[in-house]
Amino acid sequence: MAQGSAEDRLIARYFKPLAKHPGAFDFSDDAAAITPPARHDLVLKTDGLIAGVHFFTDDPAEGVGRKALRVNLSDLAAKGAAPLGFLLAIALPKDFSEHWLADFVRGLGEDADAYACPLLGGDTDSTPGPISISVAAFGTVPTGTMVRRSGARPGDHVFVSGAIGDAALGLRVRRGELADTTGHLVSRYRVPQPRTTLAEPLRAHASAAMDVSDGLVSDLGKLCRASNVSADLEVARVPRSEAAEAALGSDCELIKPILTGGEDYEILCTIPPNRIASFESAAANVGVPVTDIGRIVGGDPPPRFLNPEGQPLTFLRGGYSHF
Amino acid sequence: MAQGSAEDRLIARYFKPLAKHPGAFDFSDDAAAITPPARHDLVLKTDGLIAGVHFFTDDPAEGVGRKALRVNLSDLAAKGAAPLGFLLAIALPKDFSEHWLADFVRGLGEDADAYACPLLGGDTDSTPGPISISVAAFGTVPTGTMVRRSGARPGDHVFVSGAIGDAALGLRVRRGELADTTGHLVSRYRVPQPRTTLAEPLRAHASAAMDVSDGLVSDLGKLCRASNVSADLEVARVPRSEAAEAALGSDCELIKPILTGGEDYEILCTIPPNRIASFESAAANVGVPVTDIGRIVGGDPPPRFLNPEGQPLTFLRGGYSHF
Fold first, then answer.
1. CB contact A267 to B (< 8 Å)
2. Are A319 and A218 in contact (CB under 8 A)?
3. Prediction ipTM score
C-alpha cells in the first residue's frame, strides 16, 4: 500500500467510508482495536464467497456485498450472539470493474449499518483467479452461553425459522432449469435474510441450534451427531414459501432439492417441551416465523425425514460439499 | 460439509488435529467461542497469501503454512499485542495435492503451537483459481495500549529490528536474478521471523510502531503521515545481513530494492530520547537486535533517506502495490 498507489486509492475511495468504528482507525493503522464487553465471550466465524462458486459473476454486486456479510451474521445469530464487527479480505483480478466494487461496497456498507456490525479492517489483494471474498465476523454472548450444536436431547422439538428450499430452487431458476414469475426464489438465493433477532430467544430457550447453510438434511444430521441423538421429521411440516409451493406443485421430485439444497440461512434449533410456548412467543415478538417440524429421538443419526405415509425418504446426497 | 463428504474428510484429517483450544469445539460447531482477558482490548488483523502472488506454487507448502500465520503475527507484535488465536479461510483448486495440504497444515500447526496462537475455526472452499489463504488473527493488549502508527514526535529516534532487505533480495534469488550461496535470502523471503517478543518492549517504550511489510521507504512514509511528521534516515545505518552485504558488494544499485522491496516483517518504531536506553535494554533481554537508523523531524513526509554525502535518495516507487 504505497502512498498514492492504486491500492491506496482503492482503499481510500471504497473502504475508508465504511470505517465508522473508532477502533478501525480509518484503516490507517496495521490493525483494529476493540474493547469487548465485560463478562462476555467472543463468538468467531469465517465464511467466504468465490465468484463462480458461491455467486454468478453477473449477479448484482450489491447483493454479493450483502451476502458476504449475511452468511456470517446468520451463524452468529444461530449461536445466540450479537454482532460486534468484521474483517474483510478481498482478492480482485487486475482488470476488475470499479463499478462492481462500488456496488459491492455499497451493499456491504448498508448491511454493516443495518445489522450494527461495523467493518474493522481488511486486506485487499490482486489475484490471477476469480473475485474471492472472505469475511471474519465477531459477535458476543454472555460468558458461557453460546448456543451449541451439541445440546439436543430426546423429546426436544425441532424448529426451523422462515421457509426452507427457496435458495436451492432459486439456484435452479438462475440456471434456467425452473420458472419463477415472482423473482422470490432468486432473491432468496442472492440475498439471504439472517435471523439476527432470533439470537436472544435461542439463547433463552434452545437446547441446540445452527443455521441451515448446507441443506436441512445435512445440517440436521450434523446437529444430531454433535448431540448423539437422532430425529424424526415430517416432511409435510417443513415450511415452504408460496413460490416454492408453486414450483413443487409442478414437480413433486423437487422436494429433495428443497430439503438438501442449502443456502437457506434459516435457523434450525431444538427446544425442550417446557420451553416451546416461551420460544414461540419470543420468536413472534421479534417477528420471525418458526415451525415445529419434528422430534429429537434417541439412537444414531441420520435423522429420518418421513413422508405422509410415515416412510423415510432416502437421499443420494445430504448436502453441499466443495470436494 | 455433508457427513462423509470429501470436505468433511479433509477437515477431519488435516484441520481437526489443530483444534487444540477448547473454544474451537473440535471444529464441530458453527463458530468458536473464547473468553477474552478482562481489561484488555482485542487487536484484529487479516492478511492473506495467494499462490502466484505471495508465494511461488513450487515453494515448500510447510513454509507457506508458516508464512500465512507469521505475516499476521508480525502485525500483532508491532502493535504490542500478545497472540490469542486465529481463523483460517482456505480455497483450494479441485485437483489440489493432499501432500501439499498435509505439509501446509504441518507448518501452520507447528507455528500455532510455537507462537501460542491456536487455530479457532475456518472455512474450506473449492476455487477455480489459485490456492488462496486468508488468516484473521486476534491478539490482546491492556485496554487502550495498542501501539499506533500515529504517535511519532520530532526528536524521536527511528529504530528497526533485525536486518532489512533480505526478503526482497531473496525474491530476486528465487527468480534467478541474483546468487545466494547460503540460502539465507530465500529462506527470509519464504519464512519471515515475526518479532513477537518485541511486543512488550514496544508497548512500554515506543511512541509509534508498525511492521515493515511493504518496504521500509513506503512503511516509514505511512508512519510519518499518520503522525504528521517527517524523518531523516541514514541509509548506511540501515541494518543488513551478511548475505545482503555480499549481494550489495557486487551491485550497489541493490540498495534501492533493499529499502523498497518489502516482506521484511521486521519492526519499525520510534522511541523518545529518554526511553532509548530502556528500549535497547528490553530488546536485548528478549534477544532481538534493534538499530537506530535516524530521527523523526518536523515537516511533511516523505521522509528522506540520506546517502553518506547527506544527499537524499530518490525512489521511483516506494513499495509494493497490488494494483
1. no
2. yes
3. 0.94
